[in-house]
Amino acid sequence: MGIHSIGSGIVLGALLSAVIALPAQAEPALTDSVIDQRLSFIVERLQARKTHGQIWHWSWMTINAGSAIGLGIVAGLADHEDDAVNNGVQAGVAAIGVADLLFRPLEARYGAEPIRALPEGTRAEKLAKLKAAEEQLKRNAARAEERTSFSMHAANVALNAAAGLIIGLAGNPSDGAIAFATGTAGGVVNILTQPAAPAQDWEDYRAFVNRHSRTGDLQIFVTALPDGALLGMRLTW
Fold first, then answer.
1. Domain locations in the chain?
2. What is the C-alpha to C-alpha distance for residues 138 and 198, in angstroms, rounded to an integer?
3. What is the dihedral of CA 203, 144, 115, 210, to 10 degrees?
4. What is the pLDDT of residue 212?
5. Phi-psi region of 21 (alpha: psi -120 to 50; beta: other; left: phi over 0)
6. What whole-number distance in Å separates Cα of residue 18 and Cα of residue 83?
7. What does the pLDDT look like over 35-82, one tens digit per residue?
8. Cα angle at 185 between 180 and 190, to 5 degrees?
9. DSSP one-letter code for 103
10. What is the pLDDT of residues 165-222, one digit of tens each?
11. Is the dihedral of CA 162, 185, 137, 99 positive or negative?
């Protein structure tokens, strides 16, 4: 083979390499198998957090509801004004805790049930189900990250500081200080005992998707040899 042929082969190889190269960052259309794998991953993680979520929700619902009712009754029956103020204000704080559980529910306690209930008879329905599952996993992660959120802890301190100030000004100052200290400590326990694992679940899912959606960079090349040329291919990741 002549030099002209070798040169032509090299040029052809370079052109083919440029045309056939597949961008590694592009994710191909999801197959049914990939959708099923991702759904299975998410459902397993959601379901694994259900028990912790239910224990946390119902424990704090019982504590807050019981405190709101019990302290409210005690406040109404108190013979002294400072006792009425102390118990009444703390009953109000507990009622706020109940409202938070009702209007800002911990979705981790539902597990994967909301996702499992979605239809998946068609490809469009399966894609919609996957999207809903991903959003659920992400919301659970965002809620888990509240455990270390400055704004959440600051709100806890502010709420109990306000309660302690009211009790101290309208009733007994020492009662106000005690209410602030115990209320703040209880709030910290409430925040920190929320399920933490969903935050890691979201990171694990993102890693799972990246690991299984990587595509290669296919290159075709020609190498000149003393008596001809060698056509080859290279696949990189």
1. 1-26+215-237, 29-213
2. 8
3. -10
4. 73
5. beta
6. 82
7. 999 999 999 999 999 999 999 999 999 999 999 999 999 999 998 898
8. 125
9. H
10. 999 999 889 999 999 999 999 999 999 999 999 999 999 999 999 987 654 444 565 6
11. negative
- Separation of alpha carbons 202 and 139, rounded Å: 9
Report the candidate in 93, 137, 89, 147 with the shortest Cα–Cα distance to residue 112.
137
For the chain, percent of residues with pLDDT exceeding 70: 78
Tokens 């704004």 sit on residue: 151
> Quick one: tokens of 76?
């109404």
Amino acid at 152: M
Residue 155 backbone dihedrals phi, psi, to 5 degrees: -65, -40
42/28: higher pLDDT: 42
Amino acid residing at 78: A
Whether 197 contacts 169, CB under 8 Å: no
Instruction: Encode burial over 184-205: b for 16+ CB neighbours within 10 A, e otherwise.
Output: bebbbebbeebbebbbebbeeb
Rounded distance, CA 102 to CA 46, Å? 21
pTM, entire model: 0.76
Residue pair 144/172 in contact by the 8 Å Cβ criterion? no
Please report, for residues 52, 55, 62, 187, 210, the alpha-carbon distance to residue 146 in angstroms, rounded to integers and kept in the order given. Answer: 16, 18, 22, 13, 26
- Round to whole Å and give the CA distance between 154 and 146: 12
Between CA 50 and CA 34 the distance in angstroms is: 25
The burial of 127, by beta-carbon neighbours within 10 Å (0-12 exposed, 13-18 middle, 19 or more buried), is given as: middle
User: What does the block give as tokens for 31?
Assistant: 């197959």
